Amino acid sequence: MSRYRGPRFKKISRLGALPGLTSKEPRPQKSGPGKDRQSRSGKRSQYCIRLEEKQKLRFHYGLTERQLLKYVRLAGKAKGATGQVLLQLLEMRLDNILFRLGMASTIPGARQLVNHRHILVNGRIVDIPSYRCKPRDIITTKDKNKSRALIQNYLDSSSPEELPKHLTLHSSQYKGLVNEIIDSDSSWVGLKINKLLVVEYYSRQT
């Protein structure tokens, strides 16, 4: 299944806030045909609930189905709780780090910066959005007006927010630092997600 490129509002109306996909807020739900069918059919199935949790993760981080399954399998082989390791793997992606630093307004926007070769990691151009960042990595932009103007536009348009402690931003230098691997507290993700249900959804495929 390919990466989603359709209407973003449609997804957040169904799944709730997806800050990585768009900064827009979901509209209040009104009663309608969809809700009427759901009320008549009773409670949602366990499969449906798990599917929605998986979809939240997939659309928030902008992944294909194959990519997300790959991350779940990697997390299952690592030490620690699979759900928490999964979030750590996703949060340490280069496109997500740029988003967390405020150098891009969304993860798709960050992915575009990386694909267009505007981003350097430790002084070298990295054009792979899924590049896994490590502690002590230094993320900067090309020393060119166009690259820095793009980042400055994002920094100017976004409201300053407290960064998670594993990141440091030096906005005047267009530089971000990865201080450490993210901790076990997932509240900074900004996504209401039940990690266990995501793992359970993929349990038969892993």
Q: What string, H for helix and E for strand, traces the elements in order?
A: HHHHHHHEEEHEEH
How is the CATH topology of the largest domain named? Ribosomal Protein S4 Delta 41, Chain A, domain 1
Averaging pLDDT over every residue, what do you get?
Answer: 83
Spatial extent as radius of gyration: 18 Å
| Classification by helices and strands | alpha+beta
Distance between the termini: 18 Å
Principal-axes geometry comes out as: globular
Strand arrangement within the widest β-sheet reads: 2-1-3-5-4
CATH superfamily of the largest domain: Ribosomal protein S4/S9, N-terminal domain
**Total number of helices:** 9
Number of strands: 5
Low-confidence stretches: 31-41
Number of domains: 2
Largest sheet: 5 strands, antiparallel
Instruction: Please give the CATH class of the largest domain.
Output: Mainly Alpha
CATH architecture name of the largest domain: Orthogonal Bundle
Q: Report the helical percentage.
A: 40-55%
- Strand share of the residues? 5-15%
Domain RNA-binding S4: 92-156
GO molecular function: rRNA binding; structural constituent of ribosome
Domain Small ribosomal subunit protein uS4 N-terminal: 3-91
Subcellular location: Plastid
Q: What would you note in describing this structure?
A:
This protein has helices spanning 8-15, 33-41, 46-61, 65-77, 82-91, 94-101, 107-115, 145-157, 195-201, and strands at 119-121, 124-125, 138-141, 167-170, 175-178. With 206 residues, it is α+β, with helices and mostly antiparallel strands. The chain has two domains: 8-89 and 187-205, Ribosomal Protein S4 Delta 41, Chain A, domain 1 (Orthogonal Bundle), CATH 1.10.1050; 93-178, Structural Genomics Hypothetical 15.5 Kd Protein In mrcA-pckA Intergenic Region, Chain A. Strands 2-1-3-5-4 form a five-stranded antiparallel beta sheet. A hairpin with a 2-residue loop joins strand 1 and strand 2 (124-125). Helix 5 (82-91) crosses helix 9 (195-201) and helix 6 packs across helix 7. Residues 31-41 have low confidence and may be disordered.
